[in-house]
Specification:
By secondary structure, this protein is of the alpha+beta class. It contains eight helices and seven strands, in the order αββαββαββαβαααα. The protein is elongated.
Amino acid sequence: MLRSKSSKPSSPAIAGDTATAVDEWEVRPGGMLVQKRNPNADAGAAAFPPIPNIRVRVKHGSAYLDVYLSPQSTFGELKKLLSERTGLHPLDQKLVYKGKDRDSSAYLDIAGVKDRSKIVLLEDSTAQAKRFLEMRRSAKMEKAAKSISQISVEVDKLALQVSALDVAVSKGVKVGENDVLNLIELLMAQLIKLDGIAADGETKQQRGMQVRRVQKYVERLDVLKIKSNAEQQKKKQQQQQLQIQQQQATTLDFFDSLFSPPTPTASTVTTVSSASSAPTPRFDWEIF
């Protein structure tokens, strides 16, 4: 009898593929199954030789400059290298290759620049003027921001004095009107300084915030001045009423002293007593 085999041996090719697939995976400490890293991958990438630099001849006026750089560099990187040798700012440079002005973000190899290619360097007067204007604007905004910061410090000091006057008035303490007026003048001087600052953008918003602060403190001082004057007027009226009452009381006492009977003195009482004790004289009357 022929006996059938219960299992068939796997082919070497399949077994080899399975072993290779198993070797490509590994279990991390957290239990996650991930593909194994190939340690030779980076080494293989680093095995490629670097791209050699090319020499570019740049004409600047009557002079020629030889610059060595990678062909995969951009025209902007070439401008930075030229800036070190010519002193021109990269933004003031214009590179012309094959009759076309090249953008700073364009790559040399894509534009067709090869070894010993010739590029013309021109000075861009329009870009230079624009950059100078931007520099002046930035310097002006920086100066304005500095001035606003100094004014803010002064306003903070004056704000403390305003708070002190507010507390004094709330407690009923007499506040001199000259003190309030002087403080208002100082705040108005800061407001004039803010109005003279030319600002734009964020600096303009900061100036507007300080202007509103100063105006708020000036309005507060006006209210304190009115409140202080009202309190002083009220106290003055009370003092006047008290003086009137005292004068009226003094006048009534004077009239009472005039019309009241005099108080008998000791000598008057003695005289009256002696007169009453004297004998009454007798008269002889005759009848006609």
